[in-house]
TrEMBL record:
<keyword id="KW-0560">Oxidoreductase</keyword>
<comment type="similarity">
    <text>Belongs to the short-chain dehydrogenases/reductases (SDR) family.</text>
</comment>
<dbReference type="Pfam" id="PF00106">
    <property type="entry name" value="adh_short"/>
</dbReference>
<dbReference type="InterPro" id="IPR051019">
    <property type="entry name" value="VLCFA-Steroid_DH"/>
</dbReference>
<dbReference type="InterPro" id="IPR036291">
    <property type="entry name" value="NAD(P)-bd_dom_sf"/>
</dbReference>
<dbReference type="InterPro" id="IPR002347">
    <property type="entry name" value="SDR_fam"/>
</dbReference>
<dbReference type="GO" id="GO:0016491">
    <property type="term" value="F:oxidoreductase activity"/>
</dbReference>
<protein>
    <submittedName>
        <fullName>SDR family NAD(P)-dependent oxidoreductase</fullName>
    </submittedName>
</protein>
Amino acid sequence: MKSIKGKTVLITGASSGIGKAFAFEAAKKGANLILTARSSQQLNDIATRITRQYNNKVQVIVADLSHKEDIAKFNGVKTDLLVNNAGIGKWANFLDEASYEEMLELNINALVKLTQLVLPGMLERGEGGVINIASTGAFQPCPYVAVYCASKAFVLSFSEALYGEYYHRGVTVTAVCPGNTATNFQVAAKADTKGMSVDTAEYVAQKGLEAFFKGKSYVITGRVNYLQSFLPRLLPRKSMINVVSGMMKKRVATN
């Protein structure tokens, strides 16, 4: 797919951050939108702004994708491009969190299920695609961010595998791997990112769509992030674990 003008783009986690940036970037390129998140007010505010600015059709579906019953709201929804952006993370000692069920439901299960729902229609039409938001944390084990980064490693592997299955049938699956991004994620995840390089959500959305249009299976956004992603390929795995552990231990309150 080389253009989304006149196409329908479904974006999860669209009420803020990278999801919101994807909504405006897709609208700028002429797409009609289906926006979903938990916040009705934020979604409707974004929908109003996009309609006024670009005159695109925008549908809002309020849903909590960590709940299986809410995913049923998307049965029968037709979309040409799905952007699986919804996700949560925590920077903490593994045992400091009582449960990771919501994180795994949202970061993995909801992403897989929504992809299953939209792929048949895309294959029938012979075009379409999925953009899955992964992370630079997908490239190595991350002590103190263990479950989040492992979930994003799943997203990266899953995306590349589906790319291999469906690219020759006209459907592109692209994993977007941003590093530190200026969103509300840091607050919710209790992430200490002081002194780290940071990209804007708008930059991530632009580069993500660029990679998708070029038919790439994945993209790492940001030059610094791209260079850092090569380190796990150069060091022994145990050495890489020690490097990340030493770095993250300073940024997480440990017991």
